[in-house]
Amino acid sequence: MRSVESIVAELPPSSSATAAVGEDGGGGWLVECHGLWHNVLMIVPSVLFVLYLASQAKRSFSKVSNGRSHVVAALYAILWLVSIFNLAWCLLQAWECAPGKQFVWSVISLFTTSGMLFLEVSLIAFLLQGNHASGREALTQTFLISTLVVGLDTFLKGIYLFGFGIQLFDASTNGSQWALWVVHKLLLTGVYGLIFFMYRSRWRERLPARPAFQNYISIMFCLNATALIACALAAHGAGFGLWLYNITIICYHAMYLPLLYVTFLADFLQEDDLHLENVYYSEMKDAGFFDVDWE
């Protein structure tokens, strides 16, 4: 009797398991490159978040239009744009491993990561302004800082990508991209770490008092510190470092935008003004900002 291996070897390519999965476009994009679970864990949260934004769009637009905060209005508009780019990036994961798509993949990745970094830097700049700046002044200062930082970051990445031909967004390359990522994560970890310890020091009164902001900084500090360790390990050829780096990428692209929305925008877009003031007062009271020494 002929062996199973010999029968399978004689089958035409179109009837093989690979073709059945979908080399001809019948669904293989979902399992290609990183595998099914990696893609699903990024695509599903991104799709759900965009659908949620769409379901709240009418109400949110009304709140933003009638609101007095230029920062919130600008962040909401940028959040929409970046969310669409991020969703496209998640859906096109198979392009990372497609030789003919490397240039397009690099461009999409560059735009997506730059947009998300712009939001990160904007929120850091907003927090560091404390409670002193407001309105157009806060918006101008925040976006000026963000534009300068993200512009420099994008310029350097563009040199790596299109000048030296180093594929920054392809984790399967020989490791020449890890030096830049180590520096990138080191800077972000340092900034988040600084704010993290400011919230736990005598300088905390210089920062907005909401505990939700403190939680946001704590989460981002831990995520970037983990990514820094992963990049350092991957730079030395450790397989665990590459695995850990992929985990941080999934967490970042799947959860960062919802985290930003919940932390900075949800209350402004969903609560009435009186209830919002009561929420802020309660959170500040719980944080100890109204403690008085009666002696």
From TrEMBL:
The keyword Transmembrane applies. It is a multi-pass membrane protein. GO terms for cellular component: plasma membrane. Its main location: membrane. It is found in: Membrane. Belongs to the UPF0359 family. It holds the Pfam family Tmemb_40. The chain crosses the membrane at residues 36-54, 74-95, 107-130, 142-166, 178-199, 219-237, 243-266. GO terms for molecular function: G protein-coupled receptor activity. It comes from Anisodus tanguticus. This is Transmembrane protein adipocyte-associated 1. Keywords: Membrane, Transmembrane, Transmembrane helix.
